[in-house]
């Protein structure tokens, strides 16, 4: 019933210019333009401790907040954001990474593998309130030497975010 009565409203809610959802009675909550990004493909598979991981393959960048040349997301609008990262590593490797807001760790993560020939992945998420212009990135916190980050067609090392 709802889809037959309000098809134009549903289409408007799914467009990139409207952020929100339909509630009973046909009301739309949220406002403003969509802000969402998803990038993968780290430029350096062996980032030194303290270095920002630059994800160079940008699949989505609505709002243009993610910068693939430096790996930093800069909020085009204030609000509550959800960020996530998936990190895949080579076997016999360890990595400590963190989602960072303006130099402060908001979500640390560790991944260690001793299985020969397997490249495991681990994900983490963080909810972060940002003002317009504040920055968030993923940073390598500690690693062993050598090639550590892994990506292939079945496992992506990635960084994503969305304005809720």
How would you portray this structure in words?
The protein has 164 residues and is mainly beta. The protein is built from 2 helices and 12 strands; from the N terminus they run H-H-E-E-E-E-E-E-E-E-E-E-E-E. The chain has helices spanning 2-5, 7-14, and strands at 22-23, 27-28, 36-42, 55-62, 66-67, 72-74, 79-88, 93-101, 104-113, 121-130, 135-143, 158-163. A 5-stranded antiparallel beta sheet has the order 4-3-12-7-10, with no helix packed on it. A 5-stranded antiparallel beta sheet has the order 5-6-11-8-9, with no helix packed on it. The longest helix is centred in the first third of the chain and has 8 residues, at 7-14.
Quick description:
Helices cover 7% and strands 48% of the residues. It is mainly β and 164 residues long.
Query: How many alpha or pi helices?
Result: 2
> Would you identify the regions where 5 or more consecutive residues have pLDDT less than 50?
1-31
Fraction of helical residues: under 10%
Shape: globular
| Main sheet: strands, sense, barrel | 5 strands, antiparallel
What is the strand tally?
12
- Structural Rg: 18 Å
Distance between the termini: 28 Å
Which strand order do you get reading across the main beta sheet?
Answer: 4-3-12-7-10
Helices and strands, in N-to-C order?
Answer: HHEEEEEEEEEEEE
Average pLDDT, rounded to a whole number, is 82
Strand content: over 45%
Structural class: mainly beta
Which descriptors would you attach to this protein?
single chain; 164 residues; mainly beta; five-stranded antiparallel β-sheet; 2 helices; globular; disordered N terminus
């Amino acid at each position: 019933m709802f889809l037959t009565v309000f098809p134009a409203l549903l289409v408007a809610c799914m467009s990139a210019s409207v952020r929100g959802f339909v509630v009973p009675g046909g009301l739309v909550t949220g406002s403003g333009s969509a802000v969402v990004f998803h990038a993968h493909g780290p430029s350096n598979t062996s980032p030194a401790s303290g270095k920002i991981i630059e994800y160079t393959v940008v699949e989505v960048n609505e709002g243009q907040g993610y910068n693939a040349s430096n790996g930093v997301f800069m909020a085009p609008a204030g609000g509550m954001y959800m960020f996530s990262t998936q990190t895949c590593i080579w076997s016999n490797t360890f990595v400590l990474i963190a989602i960072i807001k303006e130099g402060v760790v908001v979500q640390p993560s560790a991944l260690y593998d001793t299985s020969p020939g397997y490249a495991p992945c681990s994900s983490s998420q963080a909810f972060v309130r940002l003002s317009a212009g504040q920055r968030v990135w993923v940073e390598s916190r500690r690693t062993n030497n050598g090639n550590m980050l892994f990506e292939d067609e079945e496992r992506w090392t990635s960084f994503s975010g969305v304005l809720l």
